[in-house]
Design a protein that fits this description.
Blueprint lengths: L2 E9 L3 H18 L3 E6 L4 H7 L5 H9 L2 E6 L14 H11 L4 E7 L12 H4 L3 E7 L11 E4 L5 E4 L6 H17 L3 E6 L5 H13 L7 E6 H10 L6 E4 L1 H14 L7 E5 L5 E5 L16 H13 L4 H16 L17 H14 L1
Parallel strand pairs: 1-2, 1-3, 3-12, 5-10, 8-9, 8-10
Antiparallel strand pairs: 4-5, 4-11, 6-7, 11-12
Helix pairs in contact: 1-10, 1-11, 1-12, 6-7, 8-9, 10-11, 11-12
Length: 361
C-alpha cells in the first residue's frame, strides 16, 4: 500500500473549517482506494503571526519542504491589516510559494449543471463552461524588486513596484500551458498588455515563438482589459488562458464568479516536479468564520487536485469529484450556492454528505 505525506495549513478565518472537512474526505477516499496519508499540521498566515510572530515560521517551512503535497485553507484578515506590508499574513503565502518554486498556478472554472442558475450571468452564457487559467505565480509584480514606499525631501510619498519577467520564466509556464491545452480542447489564449507594458511585449514574443513547437494548438493573444470583458460577455470562447501573476490573480477571481460561487473553485500551485500547494480560490471570509456557513467544496475539490497532480491517485480524485456531483444532484446547498428560499446546510453537513456519497458509490 502506497503511503503519502500531506501537510495541512488551516490558516485563518474559515480555513480551519473547510480544511477539516477536506481532511475527512481525503481519509475516506484513501481507505476506499487502499493508500495511506500521513497528515501533519502547521501554521501559516495570521495564526502563525499570533502564535510565533512570523507569518511563515521555520517549523512550517521544514514540514513544507518534506511533504509530498500541501493543502491550505486561507490566510489573512482585518486583524492583521495594520501590520507593515512585509509582516502581513499574505507574505507567508508568497514566501512558501517561492521556497517550493510553485511557479504554475492552475485555476479551473467549471460550472456544474446543477448550479447554472446560481451564476451571475444568464444560464445560456455559462452552461457548459469549462476553462482553465494557467497563472505564473512566482514572478511578476508581486515579487519584483525594487518595491516599497518612500518619501522625497518635501515629505511627498510614493509607492512603487516592479513588474519583471525573464524569458526563462515565461518559457517554462508557457510550455505547461501549451501542454494543458493539448490535454483539453487544443486552444490557448495568452493574455497580456503588450500595447503598453514592455514586460508583456516580451511575454507575447516568447509565447508566440513557442507556438511552432505545438502546431496542434490554436494560439491567440488578448489584452487583459478585453479578456476581462470577454469573460463576462462570452466565457465559453476560452479553453486554456495563460497569463502572468497580476493579471491571473484578477482574471481567475472573475472567472470564479461565473460558476455561481467562489466557494466552488479549487486551485493548484505546482513546481517542476509536480509537488504542490492546493487551496480554494476564496479568501478567509472572517465575517462568517466559526459559524458553520462556509462552503467546503472548493477545498474538497482542491484535495482532489492534490491527489491527481501530486500523489498520482487519479482514481481517488475522480471519486471525490463524482461524489461532489452526487451531493449537488441531491439538492444540498450551503448559503453561497442556494437559490432564494432554498434550505441551507452547514459546512459540516456538506462535508459529511461528500463522505457519504463516497461510501455509496
Amino acid at each position: 500500500m502506497s503511503q503519502h505525506s500531506v501537510l495541512l495549513l488551516p490558516g485563518d478565518g474559515i480555513g480551519p473549517e473547510v480544511v477539516g472537512e477536506a481532511k475527512k474526505v481525503m481519509e475516506a477516499v484513501a481507505s476506499r482506494h487502499d493508500f495511506g496519508i500521513d497528515f501533519s499540521v502547521a501554521d501559516l498566515g495570521g495564526v502563525a503571526i499570533d502564535n510565533s510572530g512570523s507569518p511563515y515560521p521555520e517549523s512550517t517551512k521544514e514540514l513544507a519542504m518534506a511533504a509530498d503535497a500541501i493543502l491550505l485553507g486561507a490566510v489573512g484578515g482585518p486583524a492583521w491589516d495594520g501590520l507593515p506590508a512585509a509582516e502581513r499574513p499574505e507574505r507567508g503565502l508568497l514566501a512558501i510559494r517561492a521556497d517550493l518554486d510553485l511557479f504554475c498556478n492552475l485555476r479551473p472554472a467549471l460550472l456544474y449543471p446543477q448550479l447554472a442558475d446560481a451564476s451571475s450571468l444568464k444560464p445560456e452564457l455559462v452552461a457548459g463552461l469549462d476553462l482553465l487559467i494557467v497563472r505564473e505565480l512566482t514572478g511578476g509584480i508581486y515579487f519584483g524588486e525594487p518595491r516599497g514606499i518612500e518619501a522625497d525631501e518635501s515629505g511627498l510619498r510614493r509607492g512603487f513596484n516592479t513588474d519583471v519577467y525573464d524569458e526563462n520564466e515565461i518559457r517554462r509556464i508557457a510550455h505547461l500551458a501549451f501542454q494543458f491545452a493539448r490535454k483539453r480542447g487544443g486552444r490557448l489564449c495568452s493574455v497580456d498588455k503588450a500595447n503598453v507594458l514592455e514586460v508583456t511585449m516580451l511575454w507575447r514574443e516568447i509565447v508566440s515563438d513557442l507556438a511552432s513547437e505545438y502546431p496542434d494548438i490554436e494560439l491567440s493573444h488578448m489584452y487583459v482589459d478585453n479578456a476581462a470583458m470577454q469573460l463576462v460577455r462570452a466565457p465559453k470562447q476560452f479553453d486554456v488562458v495563460l497569463t502572468g501573476n497580476l493579471f491571473g490573480d484578477i482574471l481567475s477571481d472573475t472567472a470564479a464568479m461565473l460558476t455561481g460561487s467562489i466557494g466552488m473553485l479549487p486551485s493548484a500551485s505546482l513546481n517542476s516536479e509536480s509537488r504542490g500547494l492546493y487551496e480554494p480560490v476564496h479568501g478567509s471570509a472572517p465575517d462568517i468564520a466559526g459559524q458553520g456557513k462556509a462552503n467546503p467544496l472548493a477545498t474538497i475539490l482542491s484535495a482532489a487536485m492534490l491527489l491527481r497532480y501530486s500523489l498520482n491517485e487519479d482514481a481517488a480524485a475522480k471519486s471525490i469529484e463524482s461524489a461532489v456531483e452526487r451531493v449537488l444532484d441531491s439538492g444540498l446547498r450551503t448559503g453561497d450556492i442556494a437559490a432564494p428560499g432554498e434550505s441551507v446546510c452547514s459546512t459540516g453537513d456538506m462535508g459529511d454528505a461528500v463522505v457519504t456519497a463516497l461510501s455509496a458509490s
